[in-house]
Design brief:
Blueprint lengths: L7 H11 L3 H12 L5 H8 L7 E6 L6 H14 L4 E7 L12 H4 L9 E7 L11 H10 L4 E5 L10 H4 L2 E6 L20 E4 L7 H14 L9 E3 L8 H15 L9 H22 L3 H12 L4 H10 L9 H8 L2
Parallel strand pairs: 1-4, 1-5, 2-3, 2-4, 5-6, 6-7
C-alpha cells in the first residue's frame, strides 16, 4: 500500500498552510473539493497535524436559525481570541447543480476579520446534510491551526446524521413549536446530539419545546438524560456563554490522553466515501463478461443486490485483477 508523493509545489502549499496563510488554505480546499491529481497527497501530508481543533457540528430542521446561531458563536469565540473556521453547506439545485451559498451573506459582519475563515459548499446532491468532501476539508482546516471549526449542515430534516462522524461535538437546533410533541420523540438527528438547543427562545412555546425535548431524552438510550437542553436567542447572543461552556465540556470528553480528538470516526467516514467512489468508478468501467453475468443474475432474480455487492467486494473483483474464486462465484462455473 503506497500513497502518492507530494510535489514540490505541494510542499510549498503545505508550508504556507501551516503558516496560517488563508490563501493557501483556500487553494488546498479547492484542490480537495475538485479532487485534483494533487488532492490525495495533500490530505496524506496533513494527517499528522490534525486533531487539535474543536470541531462543532450544527444541524437541525430548516427555520431553526442555524446560520444565525453559527454567526453568534463566531462572535463568542472571537471575543475569547480564538480563530474560527466555518464550513457552511447549502443544498444544490437538482436542475442546475448550483447553490445560493447564502450562509456567507449571513456571516458578512465577520468578512474582514482575519481570525474568521468561512467556506461555503454546495451539497451537490449528497445526502446526509453535508458535502461529500466536508470531512476532508475539516482535516485541512485542523492542520492549518484554526482553533474552532463550525460545520453547518444543509438543514434537510431528520436524516442529517453524517455530521456525527466528522464533528466531535454535535449540536441539534430546534425552534419553538416546530412540529408537534411527537416530532421530538422520532428517531433521527435528535439522537446524535451532545447538546440540544432551542433557538428563538424569546418566542411563545419555547418552554414547551424544551420540556418536550427533555421528556424525549428520558425515553432514549442510557445517558441521554445528561444531554443539556439549552435556550438561546442567537440574534441577541442570549444563552451563548452557556452554550460555549457546554461545548467545552463536551469537547473535553472526546479528548484522548494526548489531548487530541479521536479522529477515527472522521477517518472511517472519509475512507467509506473513498471506497464507495472508487467502487462505482471501477464498476462503471468494467465491461467484462463476468459483470454482465452478475447483472443477468440480478435481472432473473437469481441473486439480489446485497449478495451481488458482497460477491464483488469479498472477491476483490473490482480490483485491477480478479482472482479465480471471484470469477467462479460470479459466473457460476
Amino acid at each position: 500500500m503506497t500513497k502518492s508523493e507530494l510535489s514540490e509545489a505541494g510542499r510549498r502549499l503545505i508550508e504556507r498552510l501551516y503558516a496560517g496563510n488563508p490563501a493557501a488554505l483556500s487553494r488546498a480546499i479547492t484542490e480537495v473539493e475538485n479532487e485534483t491529481a494533487h488532492a490525495a497527497s495533500l490530505l496524506a501530508a496533513v494527517q499528522k497535524s490534525t486533531g487539535k481543533a474543536i470541531t462543532i457540528g450544527i444541524t437541525g430542521p430548516p427555520g431553526a436559525g442555524k446560520s444565525t446561531l453559527v454567526n453568534a458563536l463566531i462572535g463568542e469565540y472571537r471575543a475569547q481570541d480564538k480563530t474560527v473556521a466555518v464550513i457552511a453547506v447549502d443544498p444544490s439545485s437538482p436542475l442546475s447543480g448550483g447553490a445560493i451559498l447564502g450562509d456567507r451573506i449571513r456571516m458578512a459582519e465577520h468578512s474582514h476579520d482575519t481570525g474568521v475563515f468561512v467556506r461555503s459548499f454546495a451539497s451537490r446532491g449528497h445526502l446526509g446534510g453535508l458535502s461529500r468532501t466536508a470531512g476532508r476539508v475539516i482535516d485541512l482546516m485542523d492542520a492549518a491551526g484554526w482553533d474552532i471549526i463550525l460545520i453547518e449542515t444543509v438543514g434537510a430534516g431528520q436524516s442529517e446524521v453524517e455530521v456525527a462522524d466528522i464533528a466531535a461535538v454535535k449540536i441539534v437546533v430546534s425552534a419553538p413549536g416546530l412540529g408537534d410533541d411527537i416530532q421530538a420523540i422520532k428517531a433521527g438527528i435528535l439522537e446524535i446530539a451532545d447538546i440540544l438547543v432551542v433557538n428563538k427562545c424569546d418566542q411563545p412555546l419555547a418552554d414547551q419545546t424544551k420540556r418536550s425535548l427533555k421528556a424525549m431524552l428520558k425515553l432514549k438510550r442510557q445517558g441521554s438524560q445528561d444531554i443539556p437542553v439549552l435556550g438561546t436567542v442567537a440574534t441577541t447572543s442570549e444563552g451563548l456563554p452557556e452554550l460555549v461552556g457546554e461545548i467545552t465540556i463536551a469537547d473535553e470528553k472526546q479528548r484522548l490522553g494526548t489531548g487530541l480528538v479521536d479522529r477515527k470516526p472522521r477517518l472511517r467516514r472519509n475512507l467509506a466515501e473513498a471506497l464507495g467512489q472508487l467502487a462505482k468508478q471501477r464498476l462503471r468501467q468494467n465491461t467484462s463478461p463476468e459483470i454482465d453475468a452478475l447483472v443477468a443474475a440480478l435481472e432473473s432474480g437469481e441473486t439480489d443486490y446485497m449478495a451481488a455487492a458482497e460477491t464483488l467486494l469479498d472477491g476483490g473483483y473490482l480490483g485491477a485483477v480478479a482472482d479465480t474464486a471471484a470469477r467462479a462465484r460470479i459466473t457460476g462455473s
